[in-house]
From TrEMBL:
Protein purpose: tRNA nucleus export receptor which facilitates tRNA translocation across the nuclear pore complex. Involved in pre-tRNA splicing, probably by affecting the interaction of pre-tRNA with splicing endonuclease.
UniProt-listed PANTHER family: EXPORTIN-T, EXPORTIN-T/LOS1
Protein name: Exportin-T
InterPro entries documented for this protein: ARM-like, ARM-type_fold, Exportin-1/Importin-b-like, Exportin-T_C, XPOT
Keywords attached to this entry: Cytoplasm, Nucleus, RNA-binding, Transport, tRNA processing, tRNA-binding
Pfam families: Exportin-T, Xpo1
Sequence ranges assigned to domain Exportin-1/Importin-beta-like in this UniProt record: 104-268
Recorded family membership: Belongs to the exportin family.
Domain Exportin-T C-terminal, chain residue ranges per copy: 345-1028
One Gene Ontology cellular component: cytoplasm
GO molecular function: small GTPase binding; tRNA binding
Location in or out of the cell: Cytoplasm; Nucleus
Length: 1030
């Protein structure tokens, strides 16, 4: 059977094996893995001579591993595996060990197996586990020292593996697993820990100059175990002397790679020692005892970090390792300072340590490598947060903190600067750019903490950086490094976090605060220095971002607007695509804010933007790079560029429609933009009808541009009380051409999803410009947008649009609504009836159902309910009711069921006639009854209130289910108010007995319906259904 298993492993891991046979081999091995006797076969496959191939031995041992870990092996079996493996290890590492050792992967797998055996047997029969392992570190029983290098390496592998299993705090464990790990750690502390630490000390002492590999792995063991053993076992003079000897390697300029790893591992031991949990006073004393400041100072001044800094020989690994030590030490110093219960002596020592460590924090924080800077950001955050906390508690401390905060803030700002090797906008450096922007965000968090600790200091430092840089630009112009100007502008942009908080730059036409005053000074200098003329794309983009963020500045400095507007009109033609397309959006934002202060510049703007308004659709290329498109590529895609181009059309609409432009000129300007688009649509319509993909996309783009232009001209929303007013009739008439052109294209191309999407967009935007003039065309819009190929999602979106139109034009829409309701609803019913094909489709269907019900509610709530029962729409009334009934019974969609009951309740309230039973709140209604509707409510609506809760899968305690029951209760209450005793008789004699209720339950139910108010009956019905279900 061993040969059979070995053969199966070979087949399974051989890429050239027949696929069908390979699948069988994997299935066989998986069965073997779960078979309690499977390990019996696999253990000898691993240990036997001559050796099997590496893959066969590895997989065989993995199956043994799995069995020991998952409890498939009993105690006796575990003992057998232990004995077999220890015999094997003695052969491998004893005095007669073979010339060829196991590969590292096999050694690691054996170490893992021994770790699992340790977990199972150390407390249960294998008390000599560590003694047995230590024997492997000697070549023979006669050896007086640990002279077996291969055995030592294997012993240390197991030591590190045991820490990973029971001591690593980053490993997620169940409660039971953690309890077992704690028990094993306690046992080790009782039995073997001193012996183990002595062995590491002996190994390090003996092998530190002989084998870098042994020294490194030994130091890793010490560093990992120190977190959960007695600190005095490691922090003692003999062990520290050994550690200091390893640190001394930092002075060796010719240190080989293995030696560097030993040195770094020794530093990591100190990091782990400092990271050990203890009282703040003990931690401070230990930092002093270890002379950590002296250690860091010596390492920082060592050749790899000092002499080689700013050269290619700079040792970044060492820098990052020292930075970790600085970070954790600083964090603990701050904890001691911030600890309420710490005694004055401890705080005094901690304050002295902080002063000593501050230069080290700043040194590694300011390191030119961002990874090293990032390593100390956590402790910098802790330190600054401590400063903020103490300054808030005692403002008098601010002057004492300022000497420390000043260099920190300057270091933060300096770190925000692009380094000398960076080249902005280089496509090959997109990842570096993203990482740098992420670092800037983290640095800004620190900067804001400084600002909230000492606002005056922050304002002074940033003002100096910005002012000095602007002055340099004024004097030296293009000779200034773009990185310096970018930094100043970036700081100016961030300064707004302080200056515009709580209401903006200005409040009631006065500057908000001292920071706002500083920012206005910076803005004046920025515009007057003509920073825009500095030709680097990064600074030009920053300039526009700042103008837009602080656009309220120009409300109070109107004389500067023409110059800034002129700058933007130049920058929208920028040769760099990233800047150009972003500038279109920023120009739109600026114009939208300043539209009432810009004046009559429409003609100038249209001429300046003319060449950018030419629309050129590009069909996306498929298959060139697959779907793996980065965000940067996406931002530069043809689709993204067109979406940015739309902002230009909206901007023109904003500028042309200001009160400074006479109405007749507004019409001329609008037509000057529209007419080329109309001609373009006419040119492409023929090819689009023939399904030419680019022509269809071109017409989509044209319609989107026209709709966006309309939005720029008017953001008036019918039916709302917004301060904006409807556009002049002349403007509405001009945009009638847009409506007609869109409809012509839609009628010809309504099978195209893209054209329908663009047309729906244009329709929604035209409502604000055209108002009620759009209503006569509504049947054509519905015909084009609600086609047989329209998705459920499209129908739902259009229903939402119609809701707005009904609300906005309720007094004018009745006649049109009466004509189109039946054909329109038939299309909606068709969409609802379409079978779903997957989760997305089901979500869209649920959305369509809710929008349909909302549409009915909109009609009912705006005094248009009679349109549903008019002679025109009477034939479809039964279908309307049937769909609502169906939704009200849907146990899988409570939100829709709830809305269905709301619609039925509204119908009952409107058409059930006046209340014949006085409502509990004293209000009465005087609606005229719809003939026969009272009986219709009783026979059709009332049973629905029981259909849903009587479904076997209905859970009345579900939160959404309770809401549905509440609406069902409201419906019954309305039916009772409208029909009174007739409904009571129906309930007593037919409906409730039909549900199997006895006399007592019926009396209780009917009494509650008659006597309780609406709120009380809702609560009663919910609890009543819960009792019935129980």
């Amino acid at each position: 059977m061993e040969d059979q298993v070995a053969n199966a492993i070979e087949i399974a891991w051989n890429p050239s094996s027949d696929q069908a046979i390979q699948v069988q081999a994997f299935e066989y091995l998986n069965q073997l893995r779960t078979d309690p006797s499977g390990w019996h076969v696999c253990l000898p496959i691993f240990t036997k001579l001559p050796r099997h191939s590496e893959v066969v031995r590895h997989v065989a041992l993995e199956i043994v591993n799995s069995a020991t870990q998952t409890g498939l092996v009993d105690l006796q079996g575990l003992g057998y595996i232990k004995d077999s493996l220890m015999d094997y290890l003695r052969q491998m590492y004893g005095q007669d060990s073979p010339a060829q050792m196991d590969p590292a992967a096999i050694q690691n797998k054996v170490a893992q197996t021994l770790t699992y055996l340790f977990s199972a047997l150390y407390a249960n029969g294998w008390e000599t586990f560590f003694d047995d392992l230590l024997q492997l570190t000697y070549k023979s029983p006669q050896s007086s020292s640990k002279d077996n290098s291969l055995g030592i390496i294997f012993y240390l592998r197991v030591i590190n593996s045991i820490h990973d299993e029971i001591g690593d705090v980053l490993v997620s464990r169940s409660r039971a697993e953690q309890d077992k790990a704690n028990m094993l750690k306690d046992l080790i502390r009782q039995r073997d820990v001193q012996k183990l630490v002595s062995s590491w000390q002996e190994i390090l002492s003996q092998w530190q100059n002989e084998s870098d590999q042994i020294a490194e792995i030994c130091l890793k063991a010490i560093g990992s175990w120190v977190s959960w053993i007695d600190i005095s076992l490691v922090v003692n003079q003999s062990m520290l002397d050994l550690l200091f000897q390893q640190l001394a390697r930092a002075k060796d300029v010719n240190l080989r790679e293995g030696g560097e790893k030993v040195r770094d591992a020794a530093i990591d031991v100190f990091t782990e020692i400092v990271g050990k949990k203890m009282k703040p006073s003990d931690k401070v004393d230990m930092i002093i005892f270890l002379s950590l400041e002296n250690i860091v100072a010596q390492l920082t001044s060592s050749p790899p970090l000092h002499d080689h800094r700013f050269t290619s020989k700079y040792d970044t690994d060492l820098a990052e390792t020292v930075a970790k030590l600085v970070n954790i030490t600083t964090t603990d110093i701050v904890k001691a300072l911030d600890h309420e219960a710490a005694d004055p002596s401890t705080k005094e020592k901690a304050e002295t340590l902080l002063q000593a460590f501050l230069p080290h924090i700043l040194r590694y924080f300011a390191d030119e490598y961002d990874e090293i800077c990032s390593t100390v950001i956590p402790s910098m955050n802790d330190l600054l947060s401590y400063f903020r906390k103490t300054s808030k508690k005692n403002p008098a401390l601010a002057p004492q903190q300022a000497p420390m905060l000043m260099p920190i803030l300057k270091a933060i700002i300096a770190k925000m600067r692009y380094d000398e090797t960076s080249s902005w906008g280089d496509e090959d450096e997109q990842t570096d750019e993203a990482e740098f922007q992420e670092l800037r965000k983290r640095l800004n968090t620190l900067q804001q903490i400084v600002a909230s600790s000492n606002e005056q200091l922050y304002m002074d430092v940033v003002s100096e950086v910005v002012g000095t840089t602007f002055e340099n630009v004024r004097q030296s112009g293009s000779q200034v490094d773009w990185r310096d100007l970018d930094l100043a502008l970036h700081e100016m942009f961030l300064f707004g976090d302080l200056a515009v908080k709580a209401g903006g730059l200005y409040v009631k036409n006065k500057l908000n605060n001292a920071a706002a005053e500083r920012l206005v000074e910076m803005m004046l200098r920025m515009v007057e220095t003509d920073i825009r003329s500095f030709t680097h794309p990064a600074t030009q983009l920053q300039y526009m971002e700042i103008c837009v963020r602080y656009s309220s500045f120009f409300d109070h400095h109107v004389h500067l607007i023409p110059g800034v507007l002129g700058s933007f009109l130049q920058l929208v033609h920028h040769p760099v695509k990233k800047v150009r397309t972003r500038s279109w959006y920023l120009f739109h934002r600026l114009v939208k804010h300043l539209r009432n202060r810009i004046g009559n510049v429409a003609e100038t703007v249209i001429k300046a933007l003319g060449d950018l308004l030419v629309i050129q659709a590009e069909v996306p290329q498929e298959g060139s790079d697959g779907d793996d498109m980065s965000s940067e590529d996406h931002e530069g895609s043809a689709d993204a560029v067109f979406n940015s181009q739309l902002y230009l059309f909206e901007s023109i609409g904003c500028i042309c429609s200001t009160t400074a432009v006479p109405i007749d000129q507004q019409v001329i300007f609008a037509q000057s933009v529209m007419n080329p688009i109309f001609m373009d649509m006419e040119r492409h319509l023929g090819a689009a009808k023939s399904n030419d993909e680019r022509s269809i996309l071109q017409i989509h783009h044209d319609i989107m541009a026209l709709g966006t232009l309309a939005r720029g001209f008017s953001d008036w929303t019918p039916g709302t009380t917004t301060p904006t007013t409807p556009p002049a009739p002349e403007i509405s008439d001009a945009f009638g051409q847009v409506s007609e052109a869109t409809l012509v294209a839609l009628e010809s191309l309504k099978s195209s999803f893209n054209v329908r999407t663009a047309a729906r967009f244009a329709f929604s935007r035209l409502v604000g410009v055209r108002g009620s003039q759009n209503l006569p065309q509504l049947p054509r819009w519905i015909d084009g947008l609600m086609t047989e190929t329209s998705s459920k999602d499209e129908m739902a979106l259009f229903l939402r649009l119609l809701d707005q139109i009904i609300f906005g034009f309720k007094s004018e829409i009745y006649g049109i609504l009466d004509t189109l309701l039946t054909p329109f609803l038939q299309r909606v019913f068709s969409g609802i009836a379409d079978p779903t094909t997957g989760t997305d489709d089901e979500i869209q269907l649920a959305e369509l159902k809710r929008e349909y019900l909302n549409f009915l509610l909109m009609i009912l709530n705006n005094n248009l309910g009679t349109v549903i029962i008019s002679s025109t729409n009477q034939p479809i009334f039964e279908t309307v009711i049937t769909t609502i009934e169906h939704f009200a019974r849907d146990v899988d969609d409570f939100p829709t069921a709830k809305m269905a009951f709301l619609v039925l309740a509204r119908m009952s309230s409107l058409w059930g006639g006046p209340d014949i039973t006085q409502p509990a709140n004293g209000e009465n209604t005087t609606e005229s009854a719809l003939p026969g509707f009272a009986q219709f409510m009783i026979s059709r609506f009332s049973p629905l209130c029981w259909s849903l809760p009587m479904t076997p899968t209905f859970n009345p305690k579900d939160a959404q289910a309770k809401q549905v029951l509440g609406e069902a209760a409201s419906l019954q209450k309305i039916i009772y108010l409208k029909t009174g005793q007739e409904y009571i008789e129906w309930l007593r004699n037919r409906e409730l007995p039909g549900l199997g209720m006895g006399g007592d339950l019926i009396n209780e139910y009917v009494g509650s319906l008659e006597q309780l108010d609406l709120k009380g009956f809702r609560q009663f019905f919910q609890s009543f259904i819960q009792r019935l279900s129980a």
